[in-house]
Specification:
The protein is of the alpha/beta class. The chain has twelve helices and 23 strands. The chain has a seven-stranded mixed beta sheet. Strand 4, helix 2 (68-81) and strand 5 form a beta-alpha-beta unit. Helix 4 (148-156) runs parallel beside helix 5 (175-183).
């Protein structure tokens, strides 16, 4: 999306840039409002570099004067252009003040504080662990024995071998325990019976606390995984940089496991396997209030990405910028992950989402709580200005055919399940970003 600025050959090897510095430095690409700057620094804009091409960035004191929205956008851009292990340093006299202002936004977008033995202060882009066969935790917060056996068998039957299955039993009776005992001879299962019923949200939290895996895969006790679900989703992480979420199209099934027609949320948003820019995907889901990413059983993510937070952040796992998204645990997780990186989406259906009268989502009070939670998430998204980058009916995508595609292969794609737009994507994007104040913008 960004055009590279001209640099000399030495800078090409280890590209470094200064953003809004008080004076120009010859060893840095200068991005500022100076007439002779290499590129103009504009609040709310994009840095003029392709993804993962910059070794280090230096931030100047003028960034303090930016609005919260522009600070968040700047940190997103810094994370995007830095290569893994690249640094974002605060280099001018007000460095400590700037650090206190930006720390929360740095952790929000997935940057980590520089080690204590590093000169100066700032952050760095994580280098993801490279593990040939990482442990995947399949987490089953369970309370209803009726569909539990089919769900558990789908976890046991995964073609990817290095999985642990963690079950937190929140049911009233002994049926789930008996089912687990009947299967424990085939696979190592970590089973925990809650001494007191925790209810859904706290049971999800307990499962997450017990997970030992590098990657996490929730599985609701009434949903079903296709045999190669974990292997396929994990494969996307192993070949695609800057990925924080992998998900897929899913089946909708009834109480008898019969496939149902798609509803709006289960219709695929794209028409091929793609990598989707995280903010553009979260923006479409949050602004429409339609979770086409999928339920907790649908996706896979790194545990460390969900753990990402600063001392200023809310310690609860299922919140976004302090907003506890009640009734919509999945949207809280997806939004947290998607401001840190991108998503892989597979058009093939890799899981089965069950619809039945006993599930909590069918109860009126749960639906009402979910609506309140989604509205709270929308307020946070709007307050942080994250809606400004993309119209909600467009996704920024590139094919998932291989992981070494050039950043220039990103393109805007309309949501597949909506009526085709009547203007070209680039024109729609320009018009959206030109709006000074959107109708829903209360900030």
């Amino acid at each position: 999306m960004a055009a590279a600025v001209p640099v000399n050959s030495s800078a090409q090897h280890e590209r470094r840039a200064g953003i809004a510095l008080a004076s120009r430095r010859d060893d840095l690409i200068d991005i500022s409002l100076r007439p002779d700057a290499d590129a103009s620094f504009g609040a709310g804009g994009e840095l003029p570099f392709e993804d993962r091409t910059v070794h280090s960035l230096s931030l100047g004191d003028d960034v303090v004067a930016l609005s919260v929205r522009d600070q968040v956008q700047l940190m997103l851009e810094c994370r995007r252009v830095l290569r893994p292990g690249g640094t974002l340093a605060l280099v001018e006299p007000r460095a400590q003040e700037l650090r206190s202002v930006l720390t929360r936004w740095a952790s929000l977008v997935g940057l980590i504080a520089l080690p204590g033995n590093t000169t100066g202060c700032g952050w760095m882009k994580c280098r993801p662990r490279v593990t040939a066969e990482p442990l995947v935790s399949i987490l089953m917060p369970s309370s209803n024995p009726r569909y539990f056996l089919e769900s558990l068998d789908s976890a046991i039957g995964q073609t990817y071998g290095n999985c642990e299955i963690i079950i937190c039993d929140d049911s009233k009776g002994e049926e789930i325990a008996a089912i687990v005992a009947s299967r424990a001879v085939r696979v190592d299962i970590h089973y925990v019976r809650n001494p007191e019923r925790l209810q859904a949200r706290k049971n999800f939290e307990k499962c997450l606390l017990l997970a030992r895996g590098e990657y996490v895969k929730f599985l609701n006790d009434d949903d079903v995984l296709e045999p190669d679900c974990v292997a396929t989703l994990l494969g996307a992480f192993q070949r695609t940089p800057d990925l924080t979420l992998a998900t897929s199209h899913r089946w909708r099934i009834d109480a008898n496991s019969i496939v149902l027609d798609d509803m709006p949320a289960t219709r695929p948003a794209v028409d091929l396997d793609v990598v989707i820019n995280g903010v553009s995907l979260a923006n479409a889901v949050i602004m429409y209030g339609l979770n086409f990413i999928g339920e907790p059983s649908t996706a896979l993510f790194r545990r460390s990405d969900l753990d990402m937070k600063s001392a200023q952040d809310d310690p609860r796992p299922f919140q976004f910028n302090g907003e506890e998204v009640r009734g919509a645990i999945d949207l809280a997780i997806w939004s947290r992950l998607l401001v840190q990186g991108n998503a892989a989406f597979f058009l093939r259906r890799l899981s089965r989402f069950r619809i039945h009268e006993e599930q909590a989502q069918a109860r009126t009070e749960v639906v009402a709580r979910s609506i309140v939670g989604i509205r709270g998430l929308q307020r946070q998204w709007i307050d942080l200005g994250l809606f400004r980058r993309f119209p909600p009916h467009f996704l920024l995508c590139q094919p998932l055919a291989r992981g070494d595609l050039a950043p220039s292969e990103w393109s805007l794609a309309p949501l597949r399940f909506l009526a085709p737009p009547n203007v070209p994507p680039r024109d729609a994007l320009a018009a959206w970003r030109a709006i000074k104040r959107h109708a829903f913008d209360h900030a």
